Structure formats: structure tokens, C-alpha cells
Amino acid sequence: MTSFDVLRVFCGPGGGYGNELGVVRDGSVLPDPDDRQAFAAKLGFSETVFVDDPERGVIDIYTPTLRLPFAGHPCVGTAWLLDVPELVTPAGVVGARLDGEFSWIEARAEWAPPRTLRQYGSAAEVDALPVPAPGEWIYAWAWEDESAGRVRARAFPGRDDGIDEDEATGAAALLLTHELGRALNIIQGKGSQILTAPGPEGWIEVGGRVRQAGFSSPSGGTSWGHPQR
């Protein structure tokens, strides 16, 4: 059995919520991309990361159905787990830092997969949205307090792989920050929190809280932390 950590990334202020992430610390146990894809599908998380070099931070990211050159919550969570200053992804080198309770990455909007950013008139409208039929990837958002940069958001991947709604998506927050050109405090899903801040020369920081949710060992033993609330 392949061992893996389970993290919750972009947790709320009380440590609850967050998007679950699987991290295989020793990617050499599954070197073949097809085997990695099958394992990610078996785990069923919105993303699973395979670490190919823990010291240099070289990682490989998969959804249940495809490989990604970059993704936000996998980078934030893996940077926290490995405690490295950067991650190497196919899209580029992602800066990483820890600041108190928050794990931060620095990336570029053009690395993020395409998303449809759809603004609504109020947070209540976003809350009331039904899950759309599979199709385009939609990031539904509305201002909760525009002057303070507070945003209410929900994410609908539009895939037919059992992930109807993403609890927290750093790549979409990256794109929204790029479009609006300002720092944001985003509450997404049931209560996850994502912080962003634009920097010089097109770089954008994305940060949030990370918690260890579980670990599965090669012997078959599994240890789980507090469940998502």
C-alpha cells in the first residue's frame, strides 16, 4: 500500500473546513504517470500530490481525472508539509513561506488553469446557487464588503468525477486577485478562508491555514485527525 498524508488546506479561523489534499511524500513508489493518475482517482480528493524531491520541492499534481501543471491548494498544503522555501512545478517555481498560522505561496495567474469568474450581486445569491451540470469550471463570487476586500465564493469544477464543488481553490482565488488587482479575504465553500495579495511584476501571494487530517501507512494502518466541520 502506498503511504500518503491527508491535509486540510485553507481552513477557517477555528481550524475547521478546508479542502482535503492527499500527499504522497515518496513519489518514487509510483513513478509512472498512469499509475499516479489511477491512485489519485482511487483516493478521490480534488487533488493529490506526488513529491519527487522533498529537498528541492519537486512535485507532481493530479485531480481524479487529469494532471495539472499548477494548482493552488496543493501547493499551499505541500509547502506547509515539507517546510521548503519553494516548490518546483511544471508551470514554474512557486515561492513558499510560513507566517504564523498561515502558509503562503507566490505564483502567477497565467499558471492557473482556465476558470470562468462569475460575479453575483450578493453573498446570499452565491449561497443559494445549485450545483450546475458538468461543463465549464465556474468560480461564483460576490462582495461581502468591497471596501475591506471581503469576498464570498463557491467553486464548481464542472467535471464528471464526483467532485461537484471544491471547498477551497487557490488557483481561482489567484485569478480573481489578478482580475481585481487587490488583496482579498475570501470565504469559500462551507467556511474555508483564502487570503491573497498582489505583488510586483505579476506575482500574487495566496495563503491559508493548513491542518493534518490523517495519514495512511504502508502497513495498512490509517490515522485520522479531526474531521471537517
TrEMBL record:
The active site is at E47. Pfam families: PhzC-PhzF (PF02567). GO terms for molecular function: catalytic activity. Gene3D superfamilies: Diaminopimelate Epimerase, Chain A, domain 1. InterPro entries: Phenazine_PhzF-like. This is PhzF family phenazine biosynthesis protein. It comes from Streptomyces himalayensis subsp. aureolus. The lineage of its organism: Bacteria, Bacillati, Actinomycetota, Actinomycetes, Kitasatosporales.
